[in-house]
């Protein structure tokens, strides 16, 4: 039982970090899409 209690918060932290990084990437892409002033040649979108 100790292993489950020890690995559970680690998994929650990893999932939260992944969600935060994904949200930051999506918001950055959304902000760059809202600004058509800059040429797309400088920004390389995958």
Task: Please describe the structure with a list of short key phrases separated by commas or semicolons.
mainly alpha, 1 helix
Please outline the helices and strands.
Layout: H1 2-34
Question: What do these coordinates show?
Answer:
The chain is 72% helix and 0% strand. With 46 residues, the protein is mostly helical. The protein has one domain.
Short précis:
The chain has 46 residues and is mostly helical. The chain has one helix spanning 2-34.
Number of helices: 1
> Strand percentage, roughly?
under 5%
Distance between the termini: 44 Å
- Average pLDDT score: 80
Uncertain residue segments: none
Topology as a string of helices (H) and strands (E): H
Radius of gyration using CA atoms only = 18 Å
Total number of distinct structural domains: 1
The portion of residues assigned to helices is over 70%
**Computed structural class:** mainly alpha
User: Largest sheet, described in full?
Assistant: none
Count of beta strands: 0
User: What is the approximate shape?
Assistant: rod-shaped
